[in-house]
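Slack export, channel: ligand-projects

TW: morning all. Re-posting the request from yesterday since it got buried. We need the structure predicted with the small molecule present, not the apo form. The ligand is pyridoxal-5'-phosphate; the SMILES is in the block with the sequence. No rush, but it would help planning for next week.
GE: picking it up
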Amino acid sequence: MYLAQVDSPDTAYSQHRPASRGIAGLAEAVVDLSAVRENVRSFRKRVPQQLMAVVKADAFGHGAVPVARAAVEAGATWLGVARADEALQLRAAGLQVPILTWLYDATELMLLGDVDVDVSVSTVSELHRVVSTPNVHSVHLKLDTGLHRAGSAPDQWIELTRTAAHYEALGAVTVRGIWSHLSHGSSADAVQSRRQLQFLRAGVGLARRAGLRPGVVHLANSAGALTLDAPDTDLVRVGAGLYGIDELGIGLRPAMRLVSKLAQVRRIRAGEGVSYGHDFVAARDTTIGLVPIGYADGIPRVAGRRASVLCHGVRMPVIGRVAMDQFVVDAGELAVEPGAPVTIFGPGTSGEPTAADWAGWAGTIPHEIYCGIGNRVPRRYEEGLR
Ligand SMILES: *Cc1c(COP(=O)(O)O)cnc(C)c1O
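GE: finished. pasting the full token output, ligand included:
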């Protein structure tokens, strides 16, 4: 009964849907997996280490499973995620490469052990928790080398490594890795990164003296992988770079295009205000277009004053306040019609803004723009978009 009720309007809608370059709903995020593969290959060409594809936060909003598959196809040998549920999702989808997760609840340890997901350990009490589950976990001991976020405090490191060696000798745990995270990993200047590398080397030395033989030592993120010469590390953890966030300008390709279409078009007169509070008042008669995507979908409200989108090959400024579900653009005297495709951001190759442009307008970084694209925006996967 319920289904029948919601079915009929849906069907009616799809029958009368205007054909507008395949955008089925109000907006969609089109992800080009060939860009992800190409970006993985760019790193593999430049960096001798194995590549861990960091697909946390649903692959920065791009979709964890399709991105993980594409990255593995292109040569990533590890996957990294922040949280346990993200690791479980990848295993459930059939991904078999080693996975590391660095944030988890004690109650999730059993599940992680059952599907052979490695966990990060920063303290002796975390280690106790890991060995107190029935599974034998592979762990990566994390040393804080200067970020001062997660990781073992330096003065706890000897105790942590000795305790881990003790448990390993008993067969209760496997220390597969030793790692740390950079504090200035997005900067072109590697002075702090080199300091952290020295610190990590000392930590690995102490771990060896405690009897540990970690298979993988890792430190660098995307930009760190390119700036830090660290031949004695085994892995680089690449997140941003996979998606084409090109912090060092090596020619990475943005993988996501956020598109919509005009839901309504109308004329307003000079002197009329647009959207809440009438922050924008038309200086002349003009045509306005309604874009049916808003801050609930990740369009930064604060960017409204400066942003523009591409429609019919023309940049149209966003006018008035961005609302939860929609915003308005000024089409001027251009003849536009409802259904006209709108590109909110993309690779920037056809004149559209990029996620980096939106980040600039919103005073943030492209990472946050990508991660902010909400659940109401379906992801669609395409190959070879340019
Ligand atoms: C997010 C994250 C990465 C990836 O960093 P990028 O700068 O996006 O490449 C690597 N390691 C850890 C611990 C992270 O949290």
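GE: first-pass observations. Confidence is low (pLDDT under 50) at residues 1-20. The radius of gyration is 24 Å.
TW: perfect, thank you
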